[in-house]
Amino acid sequence: MTEPVDSRRISNGIRTLRFLHGEMTQAELGRRIGLTRQTVAAIEAEKYSPSLEAAFRIAEVFGKRVDEVFAWSEPE
């Protein structure tokens, strides 16, 4: 018997943080962390989980700890 797939995912507050930091665009955030705007958009929309390195870079841009930007959501 196989185990059920865990329905948890990584959530984030990137959109809010971008707004609070001078309405930073996805493109600007991407430029600052070395990713494309499309990748930032996918991470922000929770359709793609960032690498650990990307998560640390994103947190650093906003002067936050990784756990202040990203959270492991509870199962639905």
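the 2nd protein, sequnce then structure:
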Amino acid sequence: MNLKQKIANIPDWPEKGVTFRDITPLLADKEAFKYVIDKMAEPYLDNPPDFVLGIDARGFIIASALAYRLGAGLAIVRKAGKLPRATIKKEYTLEYASNAIEMHEDAIKSGDRVLLVDDVLATGGTMSAAIELVEKLEGNIIGVDFLIGLTALGGTEKIKYPIKSLIEY
């Protein structure tokens, strides 16, 4: 299946010079979405994680479907100030901004096997911050997976775990 045909490319958004990869057409295509989840789940079917961790916001969509497919729990990382209970926090930089993310301090426990998932790997700032949060909680990271990898932006160099991406630009 040619998944690139299901991605809408939006030039100069959210700012000039950035091409936004809009995954909503792929999500709307039930066969393409099922294909994505099945392909992303495949390497973990024989030894699934305890948790799939999704990153705010489009990562939630993929992570929740993947957690269901793998029979795993779902943990989430959100932008700072969005979670109602005690959290841990990490500040980081994006390709065009800076931000902070948080997760509940009890989202995972020491030794839990965690698969981290997001929609797009760009500069790696968000995922690197999420990795630090999981490591702080002593989770065992078994994978770092993306729907899309933007290889020219160098995000793979910031992440110290093996990375899988279904689509690369």
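The chain has a mean pLDDT of 96. The longest strand covers residues 140-149.
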